[in-house]
Specification:
This protein is α/β, with parallel strands linked by helices. It is about 35% helix and about 15% strand. The strands form 4 sheets. The protein has a 5-stranded parallel beta sheet. Strands 6-14-7-8-9 form a 5-stranded parallel beta sheet. Strands 10, 11, 12 and 13 form a 4-stranded antiparallel beta sheet that branches. It is globular and about 65 Å long.
């Protein structure tokens, strides 16, 4: 189709919108909200790509996907080939096609987007990854001859999975250590089924297994084995991708009442331990009728939309800044509003009240106003005196960010950390202060996105390969 149209005609094709479940229906189920593009829709959207010679979209992708290349293969109806083209640099296309913030990266610099809406790169990535998987067309890529080098990857989130995939293709033996009983890290415990079905994460992990990765689940490095003991066991290099799984709390009165969860615990119980499936799993979780989620990021949106699906009659987002400062994706905020979530912006809790059983029943809040920008670049919220009011709530989820789990740092002498407890790593190589030890993802940056973690894994893999081949003697 693209060959038959002029450049101007292709640019004028309206962007194809992803079909979605009706908000009134989906707010009561955990099925995926966006339904995916049809073949006809994918071909129409692919025709909008101008295949620019300078390819700014590739430069905007943290994992350097050949975006015009895979989209061109779609126009030729070679959908499995398009998926393989993505996998040349990105081991997780079905995941990234769903949760990557393309609007801030590749799509933000799309040339078509300068005059019209940008090409829906994420939708097309999801389409080809799903097509390849559903039609059982996945193929193990060419693997270099064995190098004899062994690598331990600690953590199976997006950073760990990416570094593992890249190193396996280069001929190294890779073992992935995961503390939980299923691989995937934040992809399985943090992101709800309605945004990222867990069978898709498992399929991506299974594919790495077919490539040659060994998974050791339920293995807490720092407890069962330290990083130094991994070296003693014969590993030549270690990558640390343990994420930022230590929840932050506000420290206000009443925060220890029953019914106040960290977002990590609340989402892990529901996503990984499948509390929403009462027939198949016996995972305890409080199903509040008046749910209040504190925070304005993607995790907060995930938590409040989960609360709705678990039976809440009223679901509230309480955020101390305005919507302009809200870090959540525009799409996630839009979906939450569609589903009936109430937003209390420029609002912060100052006290929680409990009933005679020690369960939360309400919270006192203050209105805020924005002052000068703080270190994050966002305007600092300032309390408005005398603006106190009360919100009734029987379930509160605190989603104001996470800190790094200190276990690896505490058990690895000589591993440099910063004042927040994150591991210090070189921006380009992801090398740490310990020789042969690399780190990437949220354990280095603090809480960020899936694709940025994957990008760190890609940088680390390049540097680790050089180290393994040039400095490790066999």
């Amino acid at each position: 189709m693209a060959e038959k149209l002029t450049k101007k005609e292709r640019m004028k094709i309206p962007r194809v919108e992803m079909p979605e479940q009706d908000p009134k229906v989906r707010s009561h189920n955990f099925q995926e909200v966006p339904l995916g593009l049809s073949e006809e829709q994918a071909l129409l959207e692919a025709a909008r790509c101008l295949e620019c010679p300078k390819q700014p979209c590739v430069a905007g992708c943290p994992v350097e996907v050949d975006i015009p290349g895979f989209i061109h293969l779609i126009t030729e109806k070679d959908y499995a080939g398009a998926a393989r083209k993505i996998k040349e640099t990105n081991s997780l296309p079905a995941v990234c096609g769903r949760v990557c913030p393309q609007e801030e990266q590749c799509e933000q610099v799309c040339v078509t987007g300068k005059k019209y809406k940008p090409v829906a790169i994420g939708h097309l990535e999801r389409f080809v990854a799903d097509y390849e998987r559903e039609h059982k067309l996945t193929q193990v890529p060419d693997i270099a001859p064995p190098t004899g080098r062994r690598v331990a990857v600690v953590g199976s989130g997006p950073a760990g999975l990416t570094v593992a995939g890249d190193l396996i293709k280069l001929g190294h033996e890779v073992t992935i250590f995961e503390a939980l009983h299923k691989p995937g890290g934040v992809l399985v415990y943090g992101i709800p089924e309605f945004r990222l079905p867990k069978n898709i994460v498992q399929a991506e992990c299974d594919f790495l297994g077919e490539m040659g990765a060994t998974f050791r689940n339920s293995t807490v490095v720092g407890k069962l084995d330290t990083v130094d003991e991994l070296f003693e066991q014969g590993y030549d290099a270690v990558f640390i991708g343990t994420g930022a799984g230590l929840p932050n709390f506000m420290g206000v009165e009443g925060e220890n009442l029953i019914g106040i969860y960290s977002a990590n615990e609340y989402l892990t119980r529901n996503n990984l331990m499948r509390a929403f499936d009462e027939d198949g799993f016996d995972t305890p979780i409080i199903r509040g009728k008046h749910v209040a989620v504190l925070g304005g990021g993607n995790t907060a949106m995930d938590a409040v939309r989960t609360g709705l699906r678990l039976g809440a009659e009223h679901a509230h987002i309480v955020y101390r800044r305005s919507e302009a400062e809200m870090p959540a994706r525009i799409e996630e905020v839009h979906h939450a509003r569609q589903e009936g979530v109430q937003f209390h912006l420029l609002t912060t809790p100052i006290k929680f009240f409990g009933d005679e059983n020690g369960c939360v029943k309400s919270m006192e809040c203050l209105k805020m106003e924005l002052g000068e920008p703080d270190a994050s670049g966002r305007r600092r919220p300032i309390p408005v005196e005398g603006s106190n009011f009360v919100i009734e709530t029987d379930l509160v989820v605190v989603a104001i960010g996470n800190s790094s789990n200190p276990l690896i740092q505490q058990t690895t002498p000589g591993l440099e950390t910063n004042r927040w407890g994150n591991i210090v790593a070189n921006d380009e190589t992801m090398a740490t202060s310990r020789k042969g030890v690399y780190a990437g993802g949220d354990i280095v940056t603090g809480g960020a996105t899936v694709i940025l973690a994957a990008g760190a894994g890609k940088k680390a893999a390049r540097a680790m390969h050089k180290y393994l081949m040039e400095e490790v003697k066999k």
